[in-house]
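Explain this one:

_____
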Amino acid sequence: MRAGLFNGLKVASVFSLAVLAACGNQAPVRDLEGYSAEDIFNRAEYEITTKDFDTAAHYFGEIERLYPYSSWAKRALIMEAFSYHRGRDYPQARLAAQRFIDFYPADADSAYAHYLLALSYYDQIDDVGRDQGLTFQALQALRVVIEQFPDTEYARSAVLKFDLAFDHLAAKEMEIGRYYLKRKHYAAAANRFRVVVEQFQTTQHTPEALHRLVEAYLALGLTEEAQTAGAILGHNYKSTEWYTDSYRLLTGQGLDARSLGNNWLSSVYRQMVRGEWL
């Protein structure tokens, strides 16, 4: 966030802060109308220091309502989004961040608002179970930060989070694939591992996905596909445990790891090993 959003409390506002403290977590409107935007803003900042983020967001929101066209309202809106995010109220953080983007698209803090919007999706990734909708939304929002604000600190952070979110999607595909494989639903399992190999090649899950394809295809009697998956694994990830396990499975059935036939893995082999993209 830009320097200046977290200025210390001014000495002149100490008395006002003490009076505002009596308003409680959900201060009635009549208790705030007699105070300036600056007084309310300072009180909201104080609530942040005490980690009472819900109350802070409430005060920032009141500045929006009582002083809607002031410079304080603009500052309060971005801080409202920040407070909701710190309080883990991610839906409200998204709403506040999006309002800032809509009202002040060219403002210097627009990059931070976009970043907060992305974080409000990203920070929920581990809470959504098998529903990956928020992960896709996080990727989209992070991409906006990376592409529209490439020279900011937020873009650098967004790149790292984008890679982690991308890896998370691959991990979920692997989790579901293993579930099917364990229950001997080999075709369904192979479909999940195929998604990882085709769409998430840059993640850490590709070697295991190739090995699981060897397992699934051998169980289905699709030996050419199994051998081709083993060939890709041997070429790109020969030093991994996954290649060792696949090699043992293949040789145990009198097979070797080489590209055979004209299947989707043969195309991947030509692309990844031979560099033939057409």
Notes: The two ends are 46 Å apart (CA to CA). Residues 198 and 268 are 8 Å apart (CA to CA). The chain is about 70% helix and 0% strand.
